[in-house]
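re the bet — no i am not wrong, look at it urself. input seq straight from the record:
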Amino acid sequence: MNIAIQGVEGCYHQLAARQYFGSATEVIPCLTFPDLIDTVENNPDCDAGVMAIENSLAGSLLTNYHLLMESDLAIHGEEYVYIGHHLLGLPGQRIEDIREVRSHPMAIKQCTDFLRTLNGIKITETHDTALSAKEVAEHTMTNVAAIAGGICADLYGLESLSANIQTNKQNYTRFLIIKKKTIPQYGMVRDKASVYFRVADEPGSLLRVMQIIAENHINLTKIQSFPVIGEKWLYYFFADLILPEGLDFEEVVRQLKAVSNNFTVMGMYKNGL
């Protein structure tokens, strides 16, 4: 299968793709998340995409929720990947030599405690962890290190100056599997759903949604607000729902649409945990 990912060879998106689809998976690297969405939507050779959506330490990638909402794609699965960051530099470099650290903003945020121990360094945000490592190697950047996965040391001929530098050693990223296909029928075997909706700007409007979820014994595992672009202080809510066996989810959706606005099922799929 050909799977679109954000990043270059060696990135965590590639690892997620191979965990979900198998080691023989071929990846289509995309520089940015909008590029990833465009590739899945418009590249006829692309079978699916893998997109990071949240991290156990740094939280949600809010812009990715909006990208999915504005796209023609559906969520068909999820994969959780352990994130073990390394500080990678050119062979022979020492931590004391490093004057700049480059990586994706999420990775930088996940390594805050370690970075505080490096005095007088410049932090540079880039598009991707693996791309940062690749550029350090290709441009022979002395006194520059990248935060990336350990696999990048072998791929790009770098050395690990320090391993597992993430603040929280229980560091996982959740990736969504996205495809340009219709959402599976409710009767198919699926135990998790991702949805988004709006509610009226009045007391009790969100509570009415929550009551329907609770009354149907649905486990609300995540709810995330996101501002409505162009509107003042109005929000969409994105939610992940674990569905009990035997639930008539089509009927629940009908009830939820009656007490909310723009209620949309983004995907139904197997719980990745």
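see?? The longest strand covers residues 74-82. told u. also The two ends are 23 Å apart (CA to CA). so pay up
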